[in-house]
Amino acid sequence: GMSAPSIDIPLAPRLRGRNPNKGKSGDADLSGTPVSVEVCQIVAEEFITVTPSLNMGKKAHRCALKTELRGVLYCLTSPAAVIWTDPNCDIEYGYGWNHSILTALLDHIVQSYRVDIDRIHVTGFSMGGYGTWDLALSTPQRFATLMPICGGGDTVRAKNIKHVPQWVHHGERDDIIPISASEKMVEALLREVDAREVRFSRYPEAAHDSWTRAYGDVEVWRWMLGRRRVDGGKEVGEVEGVVVPEGNKVRVM
Q1: What is the distance between the alpha carbons of residues 130 and 29, in angstroms, rounded to a whole number?
Q2: CA-to-CA distance for 169 and 208, rounded, in angstroms?
Q3: Which of 70, 97, 199, 229 could covalently link to 167 via disulfide, CB atoms 3.0 to 4.6 Å apart?
Q4: Residue 90 Cα to chain centre, angstroms
């Protein structure tokens, strides 16, 4: 018979030789942990995943935006949910993100494929955790849920996203981005602006790698599937009745 589906995630090249959890606990870096069959199935069958990264070398005259799309067929009979993963820019001599570029890319994806615009979810870890909150703060009416992992956000603008369901994750032993960065944002959302729904998962034994446990929990994906954009607000510049030609809908393997 056929073998059960699985995904093996190798340690990221930038972390080889520098384990972000070394010495903090017995779990070490967990990025190579196989993803469970249940998580593989729900992500592959229910979502389109989009992973952008902006690479800018010192000799580059322009930025190159690389995008990976995986998941279900784009020519589905019904629009699909989208997971927008790690919305950050990997720059050779620093880190950051550009919400204008990311928004333009998302506009293109929405216009080109069968996307349910009321079920676009954003998640990212580390600097992508910061990017998750920053992108949502810049376009607060666009997303169904936010799931920042070991990141942080602008507490002054927290009211802009109080209507968006959020599930925050962070390791208590993180000494790269301290858990206080997430705590401050959660505090602002819950106590200062009375946010609609905020969950906060703290991992007592985890250092910077809290994403393995977060993404390995099938409940986070079920949580996303159970939520839609509040009030189904119109996209800025959205034109009703526009249908993408079938010839433009492609299958991405």
Answers
A1: 21
A2: 11
A3: 199
A4: 15
